[in-house]
Design brief:
By secondary structure, the protein is mostly helical. It has two helices and no strands. 58% of the residues lie in helices and 0% in strands. 0% of the residues are buried. This is Chemokine like factor.
């Protein structure tokens, strides 16, 4: 009787391994984008606190 020998393929070269590595890469990319977005928003609010939502006095709105 011959025993069937299964091919041993390293995990990183299997389909499941490739999918898991892609998920890891996209997860890291999403985390970096979130951190960069937060830093940019913080910087914008720090240096331009008035922004587009600055309250104006009522007499500036009344036009005769």
């Amino acid at each position: 009787m011959q025993t069937l020998k299964q091919k041993h393929r390293p995990f990183c070269f299997s389909v499941k391994g490739q999918v898991k590595m892609l998920r890891l890469v996209f997860g890291l990319l999403a985390a970096v984008c979130c951190i960069a977005d937060g830093a940019l928003i913080y910087r914008k609010l720090l240096f331009n606190p008035s922004g587009p939502y600055q309250k104006k006095p009522i007499h500036d709105k009344i036009v005769l």
